[in-house]
Amino acid sequence: MDIREQIEKLREEINRHDYLYHVLDDPEIDDFEYDALMKKLIKLEEKYPEFKTSDSPTQRIGGAPLSSFAQVTHQVPLESLGDVFSHEELRAFHIRMQNVVPDIEYTVEPKVDGLSVSLIYENGIFTRGATRGNGLVGEDITENLKTIKSIPLKIDDAPELLIVRGEVFMPKAVFESLNEEREIRGEKLFANPRNAAAGTMRQLDPKVVSSRKLDILVFRILLVKGISFTRDSEALEYLKEKRFKVIPYKVCSDFESCMAEINRLGEERDSFPFGIDGAVVNLNSLSERERLGSTSKSPRWAVAYKYPPEKKETVLRDIIVQVGRTGVLTPKAIVEQVRLAGTNVTAATLHNQDYIDEKDIRIGDTVIVRKAGEIIPEVIGVVLSKRPDNAVPFKLPDVCPECGSPVTRDADEVAVRCTGAECPAQLLRNIIHFASKGGMDIAGLGVSVAKQLIENGLISSAADLYYLKAEDIAGLERMGKKSSENLIRAIEDSKSRGMAKLITALGIRQVGESAAKALAGYFGSIDRLEQADIEELTGIRDIGAVTAGFIKEWFENPQSRHLLSRLREAGVDMTSRTQGSDLRFQGQTFVLTGTLERYSRQEAKEILEGMGAKVSGSVSKNTTAVIAGENAGSKLEKAQSLGIRIMDENAFYEMIE
């Protein structure tokens, strides 16, 4: 077998496994075996680039980031559907269809709550994908769509041109996992799977899109050359044969069967791996669709039945307080079981203390709960006429229910937070932050490894990392002897990161990398910082009164003192690399541009920040000086135009030495 045949055979095998896993949900091999096949193909294509093609599975990995999305004019408009909200409105649609269509037949399918796109295939090759946009003009997101493994990059025995329409979505399980990781990293959470899918498709870096594991359901052929169909159901079966992931549908021949299928989808919508916000009813006959045409907004031959948000009364039996990964205390209502949107509900969110106060929600109340689509069940009101005499207002506790530390609330936000540095509810998030690049920079300690360390009882605080042994972690999943030794070495290396990195890693509120460097540069050691008062703290660059209060509060917490004590015992360096007494550039702002010979850009930045300076990425009238190395660019030109002092590397060296 020659190289070309070997590569083609590998591609066919990988494409088949993609189809089995992502379309049929029936994998034959595990992830390890699949990854081995992909790595083999990547190596062959790198060695023989003349055989690399645009439809290769390797092209799903994601190329270089884009600068923007180009506009695309759709060959066939991507119309939106008219909505109906009741049986009566749907019956009116049915009567209109009956008046013009003999032997009426419908296809009924779930209305996926995602992002509508078109896919274009020319001679069987996926050449372009675009967002719906305004229906006439969308955006070219081809590279992002290629990362979705249920989209075939090549179809066999294909027509000259095929344009299909589908709905990109984020599976519920992926959404929950993504939001969990975002919470751990302190990032803003996505409101729902649709927002997450839309936000992901707007990413300019296809590698980010690939990591989000989006999926698609194809539901219509918009245009095809060389093949004709009489019914929509025939077209959908053809797409299935071509290995597209097709929307589940049912053919119905009368109004009653349509309504029964809509009700079934509504009852079972929680069982779908994707979010749905209604059901779509289409005429099955394609010739009748063409005859009926469209209004200026939507087709006359289809409607979307929207499920109304359900509201029901139940009794609030208790309010429990949960502590999130970021330390936020969240009240949760425990209610008598009630059925909403096809699921049995026994708990509902109460959001926060302000929400409880505003609605005057009390234990024992008869409350109204709602669940609309993918929204988490929530308490939206109280039936005051049914309130028991002994019901009292509810208040969140003054101490954390997980660790007993005091809780705090900022004046400018509704969240109440635990202040414990070793709170078990926050452990995973604290470990990830502690090990992050801006913190102690422990290579190899990501979310999955940290989870395993916690779940196996190997760590209960960040300090425990420094007491681990390679044999402790060698038995964890995907952690053999070599990986374990590498992780232990990375943890050991982090001991010498210095005071600024440690302060960042501790996760004191409002103390980021810049403030941590200023504190390290001024105090020189954690011991001195621990003894500082509010007045001394507020005299430092980047430290205001609120931040100073958080710093003081953190060091006074017994959990914080215990954590620092164990870090000291482990040999973690708690001093600054730069003497705290030399703050000659306090209040000054420098800009670095070009290439320096003696120092890397990062080294020069750390030296300046250690001496109290602020290092900015852009030149402004507030810039003290620009330090220009070789091949300095636009920053140098702007500094010259503003009359700002410019220093070469020799002048910089003399200044700091």
Structure description:
This protein is α+β, with helices and mostly antiparallel strands and 657 residues long. The protein folds into 5 domains: 3-60, Helix Hairpins; 73-306, DNA ligase/mRNA capping enzyme (D-amino Acid Aminotransferase, Chain A, domain 1); 310-386, Nucleic acid-binding proteins (OB fold (Dihydrolipoamide Acetyltransferase, E2P)), CATH 2.40.50; 419-578, Orthogonal Bundle (DNA polymerase, domain 1), CATH 1.10.150.20; 589-656, BRCT domain (Rossmann fold). 36% of the residues lie in helices and 20% in strands. It has 24 helices and 22 strands. The strands form 6 sheets. The chain has a 5-stranded mixed beta sheet with strand order 2-11-10-3-9. Strand 13 and strand 14 (343-349) form a beta hairpin. Helix 12 (427-435) packs across helix 13 (447-455). The longest helix is centred in the first third of the chain and has 20 residues, at 3-22. It is globular, with a radius of gyration of 30 Å. The N and C termini lie far apart (66 Å). The mean pLDDT is 89.
Q: How are the strands of the biggest sheet laid out side by side?
A: 2-11-10-3-9
Structural class: alpha+beta
The proportion of residues forming helix, as a percent range, comes to 25-40%
CATH class division of the largest domain: Alpha Beta
Q: What summary fits the major beta sheet?
A: 5 strands, mixed
How many whole angstroms does the radius of gyration measure? 30 Å
According to CATH, the fold-level topology of the largest domain is D-amino Acid Aminotransferase, Chain A, domain 1
| CATH level-two architecture of the largest domain | 2-Layer Sandwich
Strand content: 15-25%
Provide the number of structural domains: 5
Termini gap: 66 Å
